[in-house]
Amino acid sequence: EPSTVSFDVRPGGEVHAFSHSLGDYTCTFTYSAQGGTNEQWQMNVGISEDNLLFSCSVWRPQGKSYLFFTQFKAEVKGAKIEHAMAYSQAAEGGQGDIPLKQEEFEITETTVSQREGKFRFQLSKLMIVAKTPRDEL
């Protein structure tokens, strides 16, 4: 069963991390942000029916964050990223997700994170689909 949890994204410039696990897999969102007040965000983790894919999404349900993100990283443990995307604005009220420009972030086997000096501080959603080790059996 996919699982969604709410958590606060807190400004103040300190680095914070929030993790959520499902079975053997964990998703961790690490960030620092400035401005405004706490925002309620959500993290959803799920495993495909065939156990081959682990997904993790982190987003602000209101669609847009008013915080100024100085850094962000989403990391999966137990699986290897096949597809990931970061968005400056999440879909809301008939508007679609607005992706970050390709140069603003980078994707490795296990992380999606901001690219130093290129990221424009706007983040509202991250989405990861990762292959589980069961794929190699």
TrEMBL record:
<dbReference type="GO" id="GO:0045766">
    <property type="term" value="P:positive regulation of angiogenesis"/>
</dbReference>
<dbReference type="InterPro" id="IPR018887">
    <property type="entry name" value="MYDGF"/>
</dbReference>
<dbReference type="GO" id="GO:0005615">
    <property type="term" value="C:extracellular space"/>
</dbReference>
<protein>
    <submittedName>
        <fullName>MYDGF factor</fullName>
    </submittedName>
</protein>
<dbReference type="GO" id="GO:0001938">
    <property type="term" value="P:positive regulation of endothelial cell proliferation"/>
</dbReference>
<dbReference type="Pfam" id="PF10572">
    <property type="entry name" value="UPF0556"/>
</dbReference>
